[in-house]
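Hey, why these numbers?
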Amino acid sequence: MCGIVAAMLFPVVATCSFSACADDDDETPSFVSPYADSRTVMVYMVAENSLSANVWSDVNEMLVGMKNDSLKVGDRLVIYVDDLRLPRIYVVDKMTEGTTFSDLKPVVTYDGEVNSATAEGLSAFMDYAVSHYPAESYGLLLWSHASGWLPSSYGGDYDTGAPVRRKSFGLDNGMNSSNKYLPGNQMSVADMVKALEGKPMLEFILFDACLMQNIEVAYELRHTAKYMISSPAEIPLLGANYTTMSKAMFRKDRPHEHILEAYYREYAEGPHRASYGIVVSSVNMGMLDDYVAYMKTVVAAHKAEMLKLDVSDMLNYICYGKWTFNYPDFLDMQGIMLQVLNDEEYAQWKAKTDKVIDCLHTDQWYTSYTKGRVSVDDAQCCGVSMFIPFEKYSSRTFESTFKSFNEAYSQTSWAKDVWMD
């Protein structure tokens, strides 16, 4: 669900608090779920952008998927939608009547515009969902445009000089428009961490958004969820199929495995397999603190080789200079290690990494940059990308918060804990 859009600076839209919302009930919520083994999955759809029309089809799929007999009475989707109308919140469970989005009545309708691409907006929604729809466990689905670890800042297009907005997560244009060329506000990963602080530990975070499965994002979010499921590449505009994904999100036995499988199966076996493809993985967040200590030793021993890599034949989810200058290379981590480690070192790295990352992929995936499919070399693919601060990124400057991708990268927790001496 990602794409590159030209953008011009636009003022931030003030965030509406829940106290200013209409149609919210005044009933004091219970914080203990009456249902054993229940789960509330919070769905945050930032769609005041070119994805606005896709909200309808995905919510329709959720309505079908939630009818599954394996779901418990206490399993609920709490869905926040900010599209071309005022933001709303809906609740869907297996007893929900209606078969289409238009049949649903929101439990909350905001009485003013909201900038949904903020930590405040996400945090307020989650507080509402947890307090009004408590459960024994929680999941979070983040749905929008995205661009991984990159900071949400403006930069100039290196070919034309036009301003370009790099999306971290979400795109809220503040104009109730689906025009893909409009500017907008985004949420940085650091802000996302702030939004999740103090919330219940999530069973999973699922990004139905492009480019979010990189080690830098996972490491920032490692204390907020047990697993993170996403793609290191662009995903097709269709995104996940929630007819099957809804069941997977409510599995009580290793839901991350079922979510990963559901996402993969849609593009490996579904009707769109001939046109698209997918690379998707899950990261065991609880193992990342130990993994980062190991990776620090790997990077320290091989930093010089990494900085000299020829990326032309490597598995690359965004090709800097070949497809675009607005984003750096998004190199698969396994492909990097294959190039710089000897056989013994690589075997050790693979054994450790396989305990942290599970990956499923088709033999090709689709990119909008070439409007075609790109082959996936299984030997190079673990389904998680990793940034390398090549000198070529420092040679170009742009008007933004950071003067280069390398400067922005240096502010990430992964860079500080792994790359820095």
